[in-house]
Structures are given as C-alpha cells and as structure tokens.
C-alpha cells in the first residue's frame, strides 16, 4: 500500500484526478468504481474541468458505484444515484446508461446484489476503484466487523455512520438504516484502488488502516492486502501516523 501525504484537500483532489486522467488516457473504455461522500466531490470537479477542456473523455467508460441507501428511489436527493448525477454524470460526456449504482429501490435487494456482482464481472472487472473512508474505517458501507471476503450485499449501517451522515438529511426526514454495498472482497478485486481522506476527523481511521493490524474492526485495513492501492491524504488526515 502506497501512502501519499499532501498539504490539503485541494492537492489531494488534483493528485487523485491525475491518476484518473492517466487511466482514461491509457484505457478510454475503463471500468471505473466510483464513490460518494463529501471527500470525492473536489476530485469530481477536477474531472469535470478536464472533460470540458477536452483532455479526457468518458464516452466509452462504464462505471459502478460502491453503495446505495436501501429504500430510496434514484431521484431522491439523498440517494447516491442522485448524488452521482448531480456531482459528476450530468456534467461530463458519459453515457448514463453505462453508469450503475446499486438499486436502492430493488424489490428483491438480495437478488439485486448478485445481479450487481455479475454485471461487474461481465464488464471485465473494475480497473480503478475510488474510495473514501468513514471515521470508523468503513469503505463503501462495509462497516466494522464486515467480512474481509464479503461480496455485494445488504448491510445495516452502524449508529456512528447514521449519525455522521445525518447532516445530509433534513430534520425529521426518513434516513435509511440499510444499504447495498459492494463487499470488501469485491473492492479488493479492483485492479487499482485509490482512497482519498482529508481532515483531522479521518486521522484515527487512517492510522488504523496504515499502521494497524489487518482486521475486520477496520475494514479499510484490508487494503494492506491489495497490490496496487494508494492512499492520498492531507496532512490533517496523516496527523496520527
Ligand atoms: C459514506 C459512504 C462512504 C464514504 C463515507 C465518508 O458512508 N458510504 O463511501 O467514504 O461516507 O464520507 P465523507 O467523505 O463525507 O467523509
């Protein structure tokens, strides 16, 4: 696992965008694994700029998102489908039919997880997977205690994660407690993994990921087993290393 420590969030986004740019130039029909949360937004803004300048194209890209809230329709403003359209897909030349987010409105969520896994494998697997990290070390919605070999499945969110994400929901608004998330095993099969973390609130999770034991107590520590994983973090997120 490679760790790149940069001054601030802007540098983290620019460095991450450069990796995605190289990937798209090398393989224009890349299969991208994408992430939500506030951290990747600055990287998405960089990619939008590069696309609008004509430096990169998403025309041949396929994408798979990590996770989605179960019980939200894709047009719900807090759904991750809505987030991806709003923060990236609506602003670049991607074919939206080639973008996949786990279906939060699936009638049979368990079956939908298997369909999602199959779709990833039919696409030839993920070339590059973008990740954020939760304060408790979660990746996607793989909360602490998730099996390190897990596949796409329905996962209950921890109270810590529900509280962390409550800021996105209005007072009194229904906030899902369940999600569909790629598993840790699914993520580890991506050819390349890029994890971004910024801010002091992520420092403990980054310490556990980089210096801690390989453990389901910190799902991101599974990246220690990946042969091409890079953590791009700012000085604040690196402050406990
Ligand atoms: C959510 C997402 C994760 C993300 C995490 C951190 O729980 N499911 O994929 O990494 O939030 O989000 P943020 O970047 O806003 O701190």
Automatic annotation (TrEMBL):
Activity regulation info: Allosterically activated by N-acetylglucosamine 6-phosphate (GlcNAc6P).
The similarity comment for this entry is: Belongs to the glucosamine/galactosamine-6-phosphate isomerase family. NagB subfamily.
Q: What role does it play? A: Catalyzes the reversible isomerization-deamination of glucosamine 6-phosphate (GlcN6P) to form fructose 6-phosphate (Fru6P) and ammonium ion.
| Chemical reaction(s) catalysed | alpha-D-glucosamine 6-phosphate + H2O = beta-D-fructose 6-phosphate + NH4(+)
Q: Where is the active site?
A: 67, 136, 138, 143
Task: Describe the protein's quaternary organization and the partners it interacts with.
Answer: Homohexamer.
Give the record's keywords alphabetically: Allosteric enzyme, Carbohydrate metabolism, Hydrolase
EC identifiers of the protein: 3.5.99.6
Q: Which CDD domains match?
A: GlcN6P_deaminase (cd01399)
Q: What is this protein called?
A: Glucosamine-6-phosphate deaminase
Instruction: Extract the GO molecular function terms from the UniProt entry.
Output: glucosamine-6-phosphate deaminase activity
PANTHER family hit by this protein: GLUCOSAMINE-6-PHOSPHATE ISOMERASE
Keyword Hydrolase on this protein?
yes
Record's superkingdom?
A: Bacteria
What Gene3D superfamilies is this protein classified in?
3.40.50.1360
**Site positions for Part of the allosteric site, renumbered to this chain?**
146, 153, 155-156
Q: Which residues form the Glucosamine/galactosamine-6-phosphate isomerase domain?
A: 9-229
* Pathway entry: Amino-sugar metabolism; N-acetylneuraminate degradation; D-fructose 6-phosphate from N-acetylneuraminate: step 5/5
Q: Which InterPro entries match?
A: Glc/Gal-6P_isomerase, Glucosamine6P_isomerase, Glucosamine6P_isomerase_CS, NagB/RpiA_transferase-like
Which Pfam families does UniProt cross-reference here? Glucosamine_iso (PF01182)
């Amino acid at each position: 696992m490679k760790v790149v420590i940069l001054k601030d969030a802007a540098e983290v986004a620019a460095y991450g965008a450069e990796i995605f740019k190289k990937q798209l130039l090398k393989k224009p029909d890349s299969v991208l694994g994408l992430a939500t949360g506030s951290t990747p937004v600055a990287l998405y803004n960089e990619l939008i700029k590069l696309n609008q300048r004509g430096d990169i194209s998403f025309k041949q890209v396929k994408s798979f998102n990590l996770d989605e809230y179960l019980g939200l329709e894709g047009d719900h403003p807090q759904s991750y489908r809505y987030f991806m359209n709003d923060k990236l897909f609506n602003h670049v030349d991607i074919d939206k039919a080639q973008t996949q987010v786990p279906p939060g409105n699936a009638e049979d969520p368990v079956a939908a997880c298997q369909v999602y896994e199959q779709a990833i494998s039919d696409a030839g697997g993920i070339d590059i997977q973008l990740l954020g990290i939760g304060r408790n070390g979660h990746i996607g919605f793989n909360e602490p205690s998730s099996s390190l070999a897990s596949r796409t499945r329905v996962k209950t969110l921890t109270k810590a994660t529900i509280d962390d994400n409550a800021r996105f929901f209005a007072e009194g608004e229904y906030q899902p407690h369940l999600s569909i998330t790629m598993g840790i095993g699914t993520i580890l099969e991506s050819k390349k993994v890029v994890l971004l973390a910024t801010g002091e609130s992520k420092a403990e999770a980054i310490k556990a990921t980089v210096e801690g034991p390989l453990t389901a107590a910190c799902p991101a520590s599974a990246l220690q087993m990946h042969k091409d994983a890079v953590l791009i973090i700012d000085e604040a997120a690196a402050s406990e290393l």
